[in-house]
Amino acid sequence: MFPYIPHTEEDVKYMLDTLGMKELEELFADIPKEVRLGRELNLEAPKSELEVQRLMNGLANKNKPTGELLSFLGAGAYDHYIPTVVKHITGRSEFYTAYTPYQAEISQGTLQAIFEFQTMIANLTGMDLSNASMYDGSTATAEAAAMAGDATRRKEILISETVHPETRQVLNTYAHFNGLKVETVPAAAGVTDLEKLKTMISKETAGVILQTPNFFGIIEEVEEVEKMIHEVKGLLIMNVDPISLGILKAPGDLGADIVVGEGHAMGNPMSYGGPYLGFMAATTKLMRKMPGRIAGQTTDIEGKTGYVLTLQTREQHIRREKATSNICSNQALNALAALVYMSVLGKKGIQEVARQSYKKAHHALTEIEKVTGFKRTFDKPFFKEFAVQVPTSPAAVNEALLKEGILGGYELGKHYQDQSNSLLFCVTEKRTLDDIQRLVKGLEVAKA
Amino acid sequence: MKEYTKLLCDITKPGRTGYRLPPDELKDMEVEKGIPAGMLRQDEPALPEVSEVDVIRHFVNLSQKNFAIDKGFYPLGSCTMKYNPKINEDMAALAGFANLHPYQPEETVQGALQLMYELDEMLAEITGMERVTLQPAAGAHGEMTGLMIMKAYHESRDDHKRTKIIVPDSAHGTNPSSAQVVGFDVVEIKSDKSGNVDIESLKAALSDEVAGLMLTNPSTLGLYEENIQEVARLVHEAGGLLYYDGANANAILGISRPGDMGFDVVHLNLHKTMTTPHGGGGPGSGPVGVKKHLVPFLPAPMIEKKGDTYYLDEDRPQSIGRIRAFYGNFGINVRAYTYMKTMGAEGLKKVSQMAVLNANYLMHHLKNYYRLPIDRVCKHEFVLAGLGKKELEVNTMDVAKRLLDYGFHPPTVYFPLIVPEALMIEPTETESLETLDAFIEAMAAISKEADENPELLKSAPHVTPVRRLDEVKAARQPVLKCAMPEGPQ
């Protein structure tokens, strides 16, 4: 017997009788013999709950998670504080065992949550509107590029080399198939090379994609880029860390047309890279070009306020072969976690998280330079991540740190050949000054 | 009880707080000094100021306006709304999984890599494929990935003429749009009277310009494609590949594998077949499996094993590239792995047997009250063509809305497009005989109401938190956010 299958032997017999059948086999009589499996699947025997727990705990214990390890690793996945409240909301099965709100009358919880998520993402980014979320930050960026191509009827996308390498890889994969032409704007001293950008931008440019803080943690100067791209009537696409918006200027105030980013750091665990959520916000002008779901407010036949999925003519299931995006789900539960996070932290909390992360990261760099003599790779304003040049191989430094129970920095040489001696460290508000001292000491040990 | 209708925009009050961080250990450091003036935020972000109690009450009240599997029967065709086992949630939340950073050294994530490697193997066994990538975040993402692989395969053979994808008229809406975004032209072919692919129509569509065919089997009508071998032969003879949309895989576990049917590429929806929760519309997971000849094109990275050590293999020169950051929806894949270990070979086969039994039992009874366009043994779901009483003004939408009053989630409506007034019903294996009988009773009662008191259906639902909503107004005058009141600074 299986706890998730309620049929008793009697039930099965009764149901077969009703159908005028003797055996279950008759239900599959329409499947040609040649395409039948004709054997049992080569999988293990079923397991009881206790056995499964033992097995899963065994696998989990083969890992060394953050918490056991003191983490200074970032590079797109961040160990920020998650308020306890979040899992108590996302763990309510009225939310997590519901599907897409196709029947609006009995999905008002999910629909209102999407509406409120849209509200807060729009407010945080300073944009007119937001969608209900996308798979992750990288695919949201690729979707933004397609949207810019569609809106401008142009094919060329410029993306800065300082954008997360995996985001650029995803964009390149998508572009290879959807016909966009992607060019990478080189980095100079840790930021987008604006002189180069000037020579690359043209009336063929659909959009420029900038990440700020960029992959190196550095705050890019966006104003210049905004002027350049709007002069040729292309779109400014900004990829941002939502936490940074507690202290950094809202992209809407910088003239961004589309804002995307990875939103997992708002209330979602790192979970080895997923599930996360991408967010996407835009100007009203681009409202009907936006991919993915959007919830809107309306009224019912009695005049009561309610919410529905709206602007559906944009959605893949209506446009079918004219689609510019095929996304039909969103990351609803991750977006709910982000919404609860933004509610609990609220106006003041998001600023405090950003400020504490900023301060601790700057303190860490100062201490590292002072004690170990290592030097920062770039001398530019940064948020919560910074690169440090190490005298030995970065991999060896990380190995030494790991022996001390510390998860070290991201080895920049993996994607940036000219930075092969640099490690990218991240410090969030969760680290204490003592933690930072441990890192500094660990680096001292690694040096020797 | 008075209904809760508030937004966070309504309940925010300056000075309230729902969090507390440890004290700032670096009080003297000035943040403003380090940031270029032009990049400093000028205003405070317009987020709410609410207490923890406010937040909990707000969202608990919202949750209670939702219908969900844990509340009742959810026979939403094509979506496989089966029970989501609780142990799956607990296992995914183990610190050893939930707190892993995606860039940790491989030696510190051997358990995670082993889990992914074994899930790849198990899914390959179930589908009859060689290897499976766990990266796609959802079914549509899997479709896109699979189609990219097909395109890359043809390109690798210098076969650049193949610009078309054939899709049957009964296909999921995502099939043509996925083909479109990958740069294919879509050719639609007809279904025959018994719901199979129309062979003549297929023959006419095949040429050396066809990259492949996308098919679900069982079809969206819930019927096993009886001509599958002939279909596979014809497509392969024309040099095309066969893509299996796994939306309906709940019917065939341990019984008939896409690989054995002749398919080259498969995507599964773990949020359907493998009980990971739908989450109100995500996160899902849409792994893609391929036969041996397509393995080189799978997205990077793949998990490989050397001796007893697992590692991420990024060195895949023929790969289509990366299709999302990191390695897929890992937390969802942990849930699916937990479920498959629980069920084993025997359990998964029983899943499909009971799912198909439940569907046939419902179909047998409901055809007495509703029109059944194709009467043959169905698989995990079936499609009714509404009440079939032309003289009545009552349509399928009215039936669906009335079901809400009876406490059931309605079936999928008006899909597939080839059946007028379609009601697509998928009970899944986790529903008991008693639940099915109660549903039959409600459907019968609604059919009777349609004769005797059609107005009751047309004005339904009556007892839901809101009644029928004005969708035209929502689209014409879009209100997509609320205004957060400006408090004193």
Automatic annotation (TrEMBL), chain A:
Residues 4-441 form the Glycine cleavage system P-protein N-terminal domain. It is an enzyme of class 1 (oxidoreductase). Gene3D superfamilies: Aspartate Aminotransferase, domain 1, Type I PLP-dependent aspartate aminotransferase-like (Major domain). HAMAP family: GcvPA (MF_00712). The glycine cleavage system is composed of four proteins: P, T, L and H. In this organism, the P 'protein' is a heterodimer of two subunits. Belongs to the GcvP family. N-terminal subunit subfamily. This is Probable glycine dehydrogenase (decarboxylating) subunit 1. It comes from Anoxynatronum buryatiense.
Automatic annotation (TrEMBL), chain B:
Belongs to the GcvP family. C-terminal subunit subfamily. InterPro entries: Aminotrans_V_dom, GcvPB, GDC-P_C, GDC_P, PyrdxlP-dep_Trfase, PyrdxlP-dep_Trfase_major, PyrdxlP-dep_Trfase_small. It holds the Pfam family Aminotran_5. PANTHER family: GLYCINE DEHYDROGENASE (DECARBOXYLATING), MITOCHONDRIAL (PTHR11773:SF1), GLYCINE DEHYDROGENASE, DECARBOXYLATING (PTHR11773). GO terms for molecular function: glycine binding; glycine dehydrogenase (decarboxylating) activity; pyridoxal phosphate binding. The modification N6-(pyridoxal phosphate)lysine is found at residue 272. Residues 159-279 form the Aminotransferase class V domain. It is an enzyme of class 1 (oxidoreductase). Keywords: Oxidoreductase, Pyridoxal phosphate. Residues 352-452 form the Glycine dehydrogenase C-terminal domain. Its cofactor is pyridoxal 5'-phosphate. The glycine cleavage system is composed of four proteins: P, T, L and H. In this organism, the P 'protein' is a heterodimer of two subunits. Its EC number is 1.4.4.2. One of its GO terms (biological process) is glycine decarboxylation via glycine cleavage system. Gene3D superfamilies: 6.20.440.10, Aspartate Aminotransferase, domain 1 (3.90.1150.10), Type I PLP-dependent aspartate aminotransferase-like (Major domain) (3.40.640.10). It catalyses: N(6)-[(R)-lipoyl]-L-lysyl-[glycine-cleavage complex H protein] + glycine + H(+) = N(6)-[(R)-S(8)-aminomethyldihydrolipoyl]-L-lysyl-[glycine-cleavage complex H protein] + CO2. This is Probable glycine dehydrogenase (decarboxylating) subunit 2. GO terms for cellular component: cytosol; glycine cleavage complex. The glycine cleavage system catalyzes the degradation of glycine. The P protein binds the alpha-amino group of glycine through its pyridoxal phosphate cofactor; CO(2) is released and the remaining methylamine moiety is then transferred to the lipoamide cofactor of the H protein. It comes from Anoxynatronum buryatiense.
